[in-house]
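Input record (one chain):
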Amino acid sequence: MAAFSTHGKPRARLAAGVLALGLSAALAGRKPPEHTVPGLAGALSEAAGGDVAPGELAWEESRGPLFDPIFGRRVLFLAHTGRNGERDLFRARVRVTPEGQAVRVVGVTNLTSTPLGDDAGLDVQGDVATYATTAFGRVQGVTALSLSGAPSALRPRSVVGRLLSGLWSLERTDSFSGIGRTDLVFSTPARAARLSLHHTSLDVEVEDPDLHVVLDVPRGTLAGGVPRGVEVVQSDDRGRSALPWAVDVVRGVVGTVPVAWLERLVFGVRDAGKRAVSALSSWSGDARPKKGEEPVAHVLTPREFSAEDSGFPPAPIPSLWESPRPGEGQWIPVEKPYLPKLPAVGAARPTPYFYTTYIRPDPERPYTEVLLVAMDMRQLELGMEGGYEEPEPLVGPPGTGKLPRDPKILPRVVAAFNGAFKAEHGGYGMMVERRVLLPAVARAATITVTDAGAGFGTWPDVATPPPEVISLRQNLDPLVDGDVVNPTRRSIWGYQVAGESTLTERTALCITRSRHVYFAWGRDITGHGLARALKQAGCDYAVHLDMNPRHCGFVFMHAEGPDPKDGHFELADSKMSVLPSRYLVGSDKDFFYVTLREPTFSDPSGAVWAPSAGAMPPPLFLPGIFEREASLGDLSVKLFAFDAGRVDWVVRAGAEEPSVAGARSRKVGLEPELGERALAAIGLGHTTDTLRYGIGWGGEASLELRSSYATLVVAPGRTPRIEPPGKRPPLAGDEEAVQLPLLAEEGAVDQRASDRGATRVRGALCVTPSGRVLVAVGRHDSSDPIASALVVAGCRRVVALDRGSRHGAFVARAGTADAPRNRYDVSALYALARPMTPRAFRFPAE
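The corresponding structure, as predicted from the sequence alone:
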């Protein structure tokens, strides 16, 4: 006690004096808030510039009686900042007296910044905080925060990296140690979610889809494993190098313009040196550009395809230079032993689906090379994912930053490459699996993913993506549109000094007129220079992706699981500076990935279809016609599926089809030259003088098209469509039409399908949203079973294969004992072999 009296009291008086001085400074010129929860909510509202409800704030744990009065005790709160009352999650420090009286709010930080998302359900226990984010009437995800900081195991490995990430975290979270974050992201946004936090365990119940999971917040794991429909995403900075941290920290301190100026200076000095060296060898033919028009590669269109040539591999790219270098413009197949292949079908073997080459597109810089990776979009499909930081979403949690862990997807991933710009550099849109991260921007260059494949085009002036769009990513204006380079005459391709063009690494993605897709990577190149390279390569529409070292790269890969040790990762060019396993272990920025197409067909019911017996359309190594048996009680229904873009459809009248004097001549039977391409004939029956179902060719009717019937419309090179009753569909000059009874609409079977009659083989047909034509045949006394089987398989609108004559339905297949005939008594729909249309397209429709 004596010792305390001698030494403790003076120190206590000193501490009290410091505390009093701090409180006096804090109170100077500002009235403290009322010593009530509503009073504190009012002070937080003023500091955050939004409305804070008293029930939507929670104190974090105290950091001590000396720290809280001087530096402030942290508090989390929800503030209404959006135009429609959306809330963001904020963190602030509040200086308090030892008795708990709030003195002043300092250090306000918006932790979420999601103006289109509403954060709700805030709960804080210990160093764990949880909330949910709702947008567009659905719960987008649930987030758990570790307020004491990100786990050490998930922070950068190097000392410099940890220092820089700490400085970045200090700006973003008001804490050098940052905030650990775990998101539960729903593949289908939920109708409702109930959160219950018990210390470090978060219980989440989700409605529509129905899910119940328990999250261990410190570990970032779900009890019992991860169920289908939910993904656990932990913020993980281990793979991020020090350079991006340094750039972000410097940009946050000095602003974007000085950083852009410095980047331009560094890249400009490097380019000047390269140009000086290049000038010494200007006498060489490979450094002298050709005179005259700039060369452009010859690219086939789908209508020019043949069974032998579907535009892949592409034709060589002509050189800009008098003496091309070895391999310049010559496509080389990528054949890596670890890349999976489609299974062989009979004697047909799949061909390589990647080819690479390089070109030199800059007449002033013979050293500038652009690497091109051509992707066979008959065999490949495109996907995309948001980074765990970028694009910083306006709605809900960020992306996962990782390739899908779904065992049905991950083993089929054969490549991945960088995405586009950060959200702060234009706010261009991104949507992943129908979850909006950033809303689409009108007139921006856009890449979409739909059931029909990858789409390229300029986004229309619409806010909501159409239902067929699954994912999308946007960036800037198009580099190339048709034959035009830089159609909008943009001068700034990335953040730079206005009017100047930075020579740096850049990437792009384009579609050719063959509907194949190219990835481009160039060093020492401007945006305009990259656009010229893509036109030279034969691109029809091109989108600028990311720029600068450590952001740009293309990786050939194969992984069976989440551990990079169990996979193969190889950069397309050794000079690329991205981590090869980046997109598996975690990427802070968004990216695209490429999967090998699933060669089988599974319908929405989960049923797996087998390749159909008989002849197939080219390419023969990829089945284009499938079939399966469906059992409905004691009834067996046989179903056929014809892939979109694999066949052309034509209608031919049967010998017994009635005719009308003076009407357009009927096309009776199949022409011999078309008969050689016939893969299937589907019986339609013929109409009667009483029913008068219409039929027509070349845009004109042979029998009048009536508004009371459904109409199947077909044309070469286009997906068939079924027009509903109620109108007479106008026909283009190359369209053919045949009218049939409607059996189902909007996925509901019509009552007339249940009408009883004689037992016979009945048939029905539909066109799915993805463009597949499905046909069902079965023996029964009504059409209800076959219509129901097609609805279960994903059909929305179904027609009967009976124009009124009540003939038995049939599907005759080439290459079987029941081969198609060129002429029938009944009318028939013929499937004609055509070279496969790649699964990529321009929008709006060409």
